[in-house]
Hints:
Layout: H1 3-54
Amino acid sequence: MDHEDRFVDIEIKLALQEDLVDTLNQTVYQQARKIDQLEAMVAKLAEHIRNLQEAGQNPINERPPHY
């Protein structure tokens, strides 16, 4: 294998690695956005439960309506 072939192989591997890194970065970004959304949802639910408890209702121990 001559030097030219080795350089081509290295360039191909580098291009594949760059593509993989871009894909991983996109995945991490999407997961971070989803985590942010889920954290906001949990915070809203916690606030809702606090408001219900302050109003004298306790949704945690409340029986479902079909009982």
